[in-house]
Amino acid sequence: MSHSQSQTEPVSPRFFPLAGGLLFLMITLSVLAGLTDALPSWWAGLCGWLAALLLLSRVRRMQLLQSGVMLLVGVSCLLWGLSEADAITLWLKALSANQALVTMLAAVSFLRLVAASQMQGERSEPQGVKAFWKTLLGVHLFGAVINISAMVIMAERLSQRQPLTMTQAATLSRGFGTAALWSPFFAAMGVALTNSPGAHLFILALAGLPIAVCALWIGGSDMAKDAQIEAFKGYPLDLSALWIPSLLALFIMIGHFLLPTVPVLTLISLVSILLPLLMLARISIQQRGTSHGLSAYRHHILHVIPNIGSELLLFLSAGVLAVGIGALVSTTHFSLGLTVFSAWHACGLLVISLLLSIMGVHPVITIATAGGLLANLDTSPDLLAMTFLMCWSGGVIGSPLSGMHLTLAGRFNVSNYTLFMRNRLFSIKFLLLQIIFLHLYEQASLF
């Protein structure tokens, strides 16, 4: 999922079941639309928007403001673009924009029903350098599958006996944020694939993994030199439990290979809702017909997935913005003066995105805007998508106002500004690493 979930402003329980039902209907309709052309995708988009309206009070003020601005700009651009486009087609396109992305966002939340239970290993509290590396790797791999839930579970365990330290918070931040570079279950991947049509999941995952490994090594090595690292209290994670994340990733890759015409986001959503359902049904059968497992699935639909209210509105609004900008560019024949999108342009976009993220602008806004402006440009879709993944990863780690850092600040009393300062040198090294990689990729693609 995205990197944040609002924990403020409780919503009346009566809205949760209805919103949850609409979101599950959205998932079902979106998957069917992805598997067959018989069902229009705007039906799923409509369900998503209705759920977003029910969950408005769940949205933080900053994200409500950002979503409102995106909608205002997007709708204004759509109205301008109506002069040269069919009105109904354009509005339905805006309605369905990013519906596959928000479907994936809601669907992957079901994975915590089975994956979160695996995050229970040895009960003793590990300490020292080995515990540090184990925690860094654990939050990265589990975060790649169940997103911010993994980071919250770890942070809650680490803060049981004493407040979360800045070193622990930075470990979780760097480990979790770098997963956006390659994970098919991260909202970042959905945003990248949506805004860069033609990009390939295999290429993005295989290209993102080595840079994530390098980033983890750089960020981990810096922290491992800390004189206090021997006192580091780590998460008691049994790494043998990583078979579920590995199995999920394998299913997606195999499914994409066997069904190349089915959108990747559809495959991810389908696996994310079916695998937990099958595993929980098996548990119910093993427990002599009890419905405990299936009750957990139903409870998740009605009371848990509505918690994505902030991300739901943000990503749907970003979709309207992207469609609106695309319509405006097409109508006015606006041009950035570029003929190609090279590694140097990608680096410039990275720097701009990082600066905007530090000021509180969500990466999805930058990506949606860039996607709309570059839609008619002769670009390498994989290079553009990799740039978008880097914008997301660098933005959530480097910004004191990212949802990840605000979650740590709000729930665990960690100063997000202090955490920003702790990560600032790593963010610069991370940016340089990304710039080097983009140039290496561009050179390799010439052969």
From TrEMBL:
Keywords: Membrane, Transmembrane, Transmembrane helix. Coiled coil: none annotated. The chain crosses the membrane at residues 15-35, 41-57, 64-83, 95-115, 136-155, 175-194, 201-220, 240-259, 264-285, 312-336, 348-371, 383-404, 425-441. This is Uncharacterized protein. It comes from Neptunomonas concharum.
